[in-house]
Amino acid sequence: MKYTIKQISEIIDGKVLGDENLCITGVSSIENAVEGDITFIKSERFVGKILDTGASAVVTHRPIEETDKTLIIVDNPFLAFIKLLQVISDQKQQRPRDVHPSAVISKESSIGDNFSAGANVVIDGNTQIGNNVTIYPNVYIGTDCKIGDDSTIYANATIREEVTIGKRAVIQSGASIGDDGFGFLQIEGKHVKIPQVGTIEIGDDVSIGSNVTIARAALDKTTIASGVKIDNHSHIAHNCTIGEDSMLIAYAKLAGGVKIGKNVMIAEDVGITDHVVIGDKSMVGAASNVYKSLEPGSIVWGSPAKPLTFEKRIQVLIKKLPDIYKKVKDL
Q: Last residue of a domain, which of 92, 111, 142?
């Protein structure tokens, strides 16, 4: 990268204090920045770090008289820096140009404007692709799918038949969307497969991480609402529903029929048993197992998941058990 401070200030809509012609060649955290880098501070309590940073320029929320470094003043430095990082990221990524000769696209499919597809992309019949969609190499999209405008699907992702994905979706490498739900009926000691004939509907502005699996419904649909973010290696079983703007961190596991409300935070490595309902604005701590439904606004942790304050008390007591055991034994 190579930007002048003036160019960066225009990108993030900031006010320059210092040399607007200063050349910036890198971005970094304030602790690891070197000459030529630009960094930022989140809030007032990080102001002191400006004096020790090796960065040539800093994005900040106010003038800092103690330093002679070039500053860019904005209302929200973190948000402004994210905006700059997005511009840099877009420039670094090598978007496929046009449609690679090895791509196989059904003539029955509908393709929007400014579409690009990498090598070995396969799109089956009756699928509708919106405008400004980018598909990286080795992606498979099945029949009767719909992909909304401005979406990006990275290499080796698989989207099975009859999946609907909204606008501005980002699907990372290796994701599998629309595979069969794990449905079997045991009859006389044998596992008989239950056909999975439902669909999947995914809203706008959804982010799906690498190697995420989202199973189609046995009947009806699996639903991922707009604004949902799902981290790498998570599993969403058949007939699950995830409400708007909820977030699932890595290795989250939802069994069949789970219903997650709006603005819910599911931390890493959480397991939720089948048909549990998680109320709006709830939070589930890392490595928890949820076996019962939660009221809206719940904050839980542990296995089984319990109210956070109660679980903390239990953890304190567990640490004291050896001493308690010794006292009881002595008695």
A: 92
pTM score, whole prediction:
0.87
For residue 275, what is the domain's CATH number?
2.160.10.10
Surface-to-core class of residue 1, CB atoms within 10 Å of its CB (0-12 exposed, 13-18 middle, 19+ buried): middle
Where in the sequence is the domain holding 174, given as residue range(s)? 157-309
223/220 Cα distance (integer angstroms): 10
Q: Which residues are marked as active site?
A: 238
Give the model's confidence band at 94: pLDDT under 50 very low, under 70 low, under 90 confident, else very high: confident
- For residues 196 and 274, state if they share a domain: yes
170, 205 Cβ separation under 8 angstroms: no
Identity at 97, one-letter amino acid code: R
Structural domains in the chain (count) = 2
Residue 97 has what pLDDT?
Answer: 78
- DSSP reduced 3-state for 301: strand
